[in-house]
Amino acid sequence: MSKIAKFPLKTPGVILALVLGLAASGPAFAQEVRQITVTGQGIVHAVPDMATLSLGVEHQHRDASQAMAQSSAAMGAMLKRLAAFGIEPRDVQTGQVSLSPIYTHRNNSQPRIEGYRAVQSVNVRVRDLDSLGQVMGAVLQDGANRFSGLRFGVQDPAPLQDQARQAAVAEALRKAKLYAEAASVELGDILSISETAVQNVAPMMRMAADMAEAVPIAEGELNLTQSVRVVIKLD
User: Where are the beta strands (DSSP E) in 62-145?
Assistant: First the structure.
């Protein structure tokens, strides 16, 4: 007659095996949370109150030192003119200083250096937009012969960005409510809110200056756009 081995149930290995067995054979208690994901976009319109100019000077000469000296003299005159308009040193930053050879190719011969090109540029913030056209006209007269761009902005964008964020969340919640009513479900708690970077664009333009010896400038209207993604639980 064979003997049946008996094991005490308090043995840790037996208890663990029983727990794993129940977990494998029993019904799944975890249920997936029903949720809805919506996106919202908020747009705030603002008139810019500052501009950033990217401009500079370029000079060529057979002698490298002369090329750099000429560009430095023109840049010095530009900086003095900017200071005369009340532009502070903190709003003027050097963007580029370069000196490069100019090559020539004649009769399929080896390229030879015939001179040098010196380039200097600055980025200038103009906080008084009423003087922007005059500033540009003045620096052109002082020798600026390179212009890389002009962009508008606001000096304190934080409040406008917050308005765009609030509008984006409100738009997302409006859409979520609309979808919930259409699907005959109830909205629950907000599970998450994520955002993308604020974008500033100026699609609308208007003339801001048209004076003698000044450059006509269209300062336009900035649109600050914020997008958010909202995940909401469904009850």
Answer: 92-104, 112-126
